[in-house]
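New to this. Explain the following:
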Amino acid sequence: MRDVGGEMTAAELRERLRGYKGVGEQGDHALSGLPPLLLPTSPKPPRPAAVLVPILTRPEGPTLLLTRRTDHLHDHAGQISFPGGRIEPDDTSPEAAALREAREEVGLDPSAVEVLGRLDLYHTVTGYAVTPIVALVSPNARFTPDPFEVADIFEVPLAFILNPLNHQRHFRDTPIGRRYFYVLPYQDRYIWGATAGMLVNFSKVLTGS
């Protein structure tokens, strides 16, 4: 297959994601391959959440927008993530939640967004069931990060995400066994955990691998 990352047009992205509704489930536990009795468990059901996977069409090729969370947040402080968060009772769908969160966190106007589809549901070890919503964002969109939640916003070339050589598999030893997770190191950014797992899933959906 050709290197689709640097050459893929908006029309090709629409075609590859058309009808894909997140048919499977992903998660850190699946990557770790832990026996069922050793999987991280919680007495509570997973909390539904949604993130926006924003694609911007640039002259040099498509990019994905990511954020770095501020260091004082309770959940995932300092980590790199997509705009997103919990699905609230007033949200009519995961898409609505992702668009609301993107507006709150980075000031993205929903009118500048074209939703393309969903990736697979992603279960985090912190107890969330996350629906990633893939969308095209106008290259003229303006971003205003919320200083309380977002320390920085930046873009990563789609070609980098789609290159399997950048999908590193790391591990940590924990009391319940060895935990594996993906890492996509980009320049001075350390993209890991759930965000990296969703990016790998996105890569597989686009490339059919």
Observations:
- Residues 172 and 178 are 6 Å apart (CA to CA).
- The first helix runs from residue 4 to 7.
- The chain has a mean pLDDT of 82.
- Helices lie at 4-7, 10-17, 28-32, 94-106, 158-162, 193-207.
